[in-house]
Amino acid sequence: MPSKSGPVFVDGKLQILEMNEETITENTVAINSQHDDKRLTFIMDRLVHHLHDFARETRLTTDEWDAGIQFLTEVGKMCSDIRQEFVLLSDTLGLSVLVDSLSHPKPKEATIGTLLGPFHTHDAVFHEDGTSICSEGKGEPMLIEGLLTDTKGNPIPNATIDLWECDENGFYDTQYSDRDGADMRGIIRTGEDGSFHIKCTKPVPYPIPHDGPVGRMLKKINRHPYRPAHIHFIIEKEGYDKLITALYLKGDYETSDAVFGVKSELLFSLDKLGKEKAVKYNMKEDDWYLNWHFRIITEEESRKLVLTKNTDALKALGKGNFTINENGLPIAAPLD
């Protein structure tokens, strides 16, 4: 009969005595722990345990395992400089929103975050206050009048607001083969009073790319690929916690977003611009108008909140052999 013994140390060296269903998890964790990075040790420990438990609980077959490997291979092949199918997979499984929520918890007074999505780029250009991030004919014109403050209402000047959206056809600029630069995206700075004004277009619902393996997965499990109309934002200022969020227009798919990004606090309705603002910004009275107050927290506030929430959650969870570091993250417990 094979031994059920797990790994042991002989003369200070790790020895694997048996490799079977009973010992494989313990053996794998031990082999993966022969380094000094305690955070990585804990992550690998839990990854192996959860993967192995998944296989045990589902009684995973070799055919199913092979299908999973083929699926992930196809996801990788679909990735390019302008398309990140793995991010899309993470989004559709709800993982992206979860990771953002864990990494950037917010007090109730602050603007809540949501997923980045697969269409952010790093080639957006800066725009002057009141100008447009969109080229002509891309949709129904809209003015965003925004304010950025801390949670006490103090204005935050000279912060960057990076925003992007799809066009009236439901496509981002990166989805066009003849793209020659950033469109429907741009960066603006807040003024001394924390305000900013930017022209864009009324957002529309659109399907996420579903011509690849993630799309086939959604079809297989009877899910639609649509997202509600929305605009993405990244707000940054030195000393403050980076906010990745989006605002969602009420009316379509907000209760069945394909990537789980909608949160009730981020829903908005639109008004008409009106004569005064139309004259000021050289727009039409019946163009669309969105007013939004963003509230962010400092890096120190975020660090303390992460530490508190993680400490409480990890103590309640009680999984794995770990201690908590100064950033509130679990790391492998020191050996006795």
Automatic annotation (TrEMBL):
Pfam families: Dioxygenase_C, Dioxygenase_N. GO terms for biological process: catechol-containing compound metabolic process. Residues 144-172 form the Intradiol ring-cleavage dioxygenases domain. Keywords: Dioxygenase, Iron, Metal-binding, Oxidoreductase. Coiled coil: none annotated. GO terms for molecular function: catechol 1,2-dioxygenase activity; ferric iron binding. Its cofactor is Fe(3+). InterPro entries: 1_2-HQD/HQD (IPR039390), Catechol_dOase_N (IPR007535), Intradiol_dOase_C (IPR000627), Intradiol_dOase_core (IPR015889), Intradiol_RC_Dioxygenase (IPR050770). SUPFAM superfamilies: Aromatic compound dioxygenase (SSF49482). Belongs to the intradiol ring-cleavage dioxygenase family. This is Intradiol ring-cleavage dioxygenases domain-containing protein. It comes from Debaryomyces fabryi.
